[in-house]
Design a protein that fits this description.
By secondary structure, this protein is α/β, with parallel strands linked by helices. The protein contains eight helices and twelve strands.
Amino acid sequence: MTYFKAVRRRTFWLGALLAVASLVGCGTPPTYKLRPVTGQSPGTFSLAHSKAVEDERHAVRHLDAAKSIVYSQNFGGGGAALGLLLGPLGVAANASMIDSNTEADAVRLRGKLTLAPRELFLAAATQQGLEVVDDAATSVPGRTLATPYLFVSKTDNDRLLTAAAVRLEYGQGADQWSGVYMYQLPSSYQLDDLARLTPEMQARLGTEAAQGFSALAAFIAKEAPQQEGQAKGGTEKDFSYKSDLLTPRIEIEMNGRFIARSDDLIWFRSFGGVYAVRTSNIKVMSGGI
């Protein structure tokens, strides 16, 4: 009986986490496959509309009509105990209650943030010398599709973390590469505060988001051709970590490769992409970085 309870518990939380995996890049197969970069150029890009970002799913909602501000939360329900007590019916009830809480939060937040992530990323990328065109040219062969968005994630005590993010996709079919590049913004908010956003808070969030997209564009612009073995044997050091930004409520230990520190950020590569996470929101479990 204990075994089956454990299985149910893991199944419930796995389902909840998979619902947002494409947004934080944790749902891809366990590989550090690097972004395809050829020659001396970081590549050419087309602004796109990735389904992984724009399709709604369990515990995920969009806060703007353009579907470029994405809210995720997995709090609510009766917790794992309800799933253990009622089995599959409990799991379904938990999922339904969590999704209802997500929708209730989204109703309060929808339309309150006036950011335009696509424009912010386009401006930042252009400033870094990247060649970026709008989505009218997404079918041009050889271009990397870029879907910028603002990621808003609820953690404990109704605290909201925000991050500038861009999902990159290259190629098609079985050979397609995809990855999330995410930069956590310095400020956090209470749900009530973000629901009643003042002009000052709006301006601060806009400034931080612009800086975040600028940092991501600068990183992408500096990426050079390298093989998997080069990254592993070079300056990137293996370590493991937990982060309430990437897996809130149930912090899961994950593997990564340390890239660099800047200010109070740790830059690292994980299975789903490249992340810059505030030191206050990441716990290094092993690796001694």
